[in-house]
Request: fold
Amino acid sequence: MKCAMCSGETFLTTGTIEFDSKTLGMVCVPDITHKKCNICGDILIPSSESNKIIDFVRKKEKQAIGLIPFCNFVSLNEAANILGISKQAFSKNPKINNGLIYSAILGKRRYYVRKSVELFKENGNGKYLLSRVKTFDDLKNPFFKTFFEQWVEIPSSKIKPSRQILKRYTSTKERYS
Reply:
């Protein structure tokens, strides 16, 4: 097959593709079968492989959201209050339902990233570049709990409104201050 850019020959190969994600920055997606031009290096990705790339990036995005400290999450009530709308309007907003505000589920409740909610209020899009790296200092700090670590620590049957979790964090913070 001829390359659309330079009329060179393309060949089928499997390898790692770099994908520029607005959420994660540059992501390397492994084992993608694609056609590559032998002259200009242009890449043609089949639709089946593009779905594989999208799934891989979504998985990495969920992992990055899981690394955000739990104290940076707010409940649905708090998120609706920040936006100045009702809980029902928040829940039915199509932009929010399409993922323009980062969120994660703990037990049976969904929690939203405060920074994402505030950005959504400012410009209608709560997505921002997520940091995927935990520093060594964060790991030593007993107050630093990622969303996933908090979920593992508290059984879902014992989850009460977010006030209980916040009270627990303030007492932990006072102990180590």
Residues 135 and 141 are 10 Å apart (CA to CA).
